[in-house]
Amino acid sequence: MQPTLTIDLDAIRGNWRNLARQNGGETAAVVKANAYGLGADRVAPALAEEGARHFFVAIAEEGAALRRILGPGPTISVFSGHMPGDAELIASADLVPMINSIDQMLRHVEALPGHPFGVQLDSGMNRLGMEPAEWGALRDIALAQNPVLVMSHLACSDEPQHGMNDFQLRTFAELTHGLDVPLSLSATGGILMGPDYHFDLSRPGIGLYGGLPFIDAQPVAYLDIPVIQVREVAPGESVGYGNTWIARRPTRVATIAAGYADGVLRGMGPKAYVYAGETRCKVLGRISMDLIGVDVTGIEPVPDHVELLGRHQSIDTLADAAGTIGYEILTALGARYARRYTGG
Ligand SMILES: *Cc1c(COP(=O)(O)O)cnc(C)c1O
């Protein structure tokens, strides 16, 4: 029996609506990495129905798959821009590459003259986009080709007080001063920082999927894991690989049917909990590839399944246990779950 991953499409729609209400400009939706692991084939159409007209993906192949899902109409933009070999996909799937360098600009106008494109500027993160000097050299040439969007990305928008936010805002404003082109700076965190950061278009991802920094997000992912077997363990006995956990008192141990191959990150073992109904149950010993031991001492009746994600535990709580972020918890969710969608 498989664990069940339930994805609440109504919650995703509600989160998009809620962010769109706070956002001054148009609100797009970022659905890269298969909608953060939740299934772009279900998530993107639900968001399109809710009113999203602009979608972002990481690479052209994702964009082509998304076009098959959404059909003609919505704008699909690609953060990695126009990479070697992308021209055919960009043309046939009607994608808008966010051009990141002079090389990409030349490649694009040579392979697909007149095909829409945007420009991504680096305002300080040093990840993707043209450096200010590069943009200075290319600006007039690029503008003559009519970019449909000029964007940049914030490095620290999950920390509103961080000085980097204001620095990047000022840098972006300087780099785009006087342009008559739609502008975009913010993802989820930037929307929450207020109107100065909104410009013409915002690009939320994690907030749609129920993660921080969108503190008011509705939970989206519910993960229930069946109990395979229950045993009584005596003081002095151990549980799991490496004997890292040893019982100090009589303990009832449930072995549940998920492990690190399902994205339950092994490193979270010592700090992780699951829930049996309302009761918090500690993970005992190391997380195996397909199995986890949990403490169900005193829980009556013995549960037939436990909750890893849901009402009692958010992706961010679980991320804390693993020393990571909700984004990684979602994108790590494995292929072995029975996926159920509700709402939509
Ligand atoms: C992933 C990404 C987003 C979405 O960010 P969230 O923090 O998930 O809202 C927006 N813009 C760019 C460039 C991205 O890479």
From TrEMBL:
PROSITE patterns, A to Z: ALANINE_RACEMASE (PS00395)
Alanine racemase C-terminal domain boundaries: 220-342
InterPro entries xrefs: Ala_racemase, Ala_racemase/Decarboxylase_C, Ala_racemase_C, Ala_racemase_N, Ala_racemase_pyridoxalP-BS, PLP-binding_barrel
SUPFAM superfamilies to which the protein is assigned, alphabetical: Alanine racemase C-terminal domain-like (SSF50621), PLP-binding barrel (SSF51419)
Catalyzed chemical reaction(s): L-alanine = D-alanine
Protein keywords: Isomerase, Pyridoxal phosphate
Gene source species: Roseivivax halotolerans
Binding site for substrate: 127, 289
One GO term (biological process): D-alanine biosynthetic process
GO cellular component: cytosol
Annotated protein name in UniProt: Alanine racemase
Pathway as given in its UniProt record: Amino-acid biosynthesis; D-alanine biosynthesis; D-alanine from L-alanine: step 1/1
Lineage of the organism: Bacteria, Pseudomonadati, Pseudomonadota, Alphaproteobacteria, Rhodobacterales
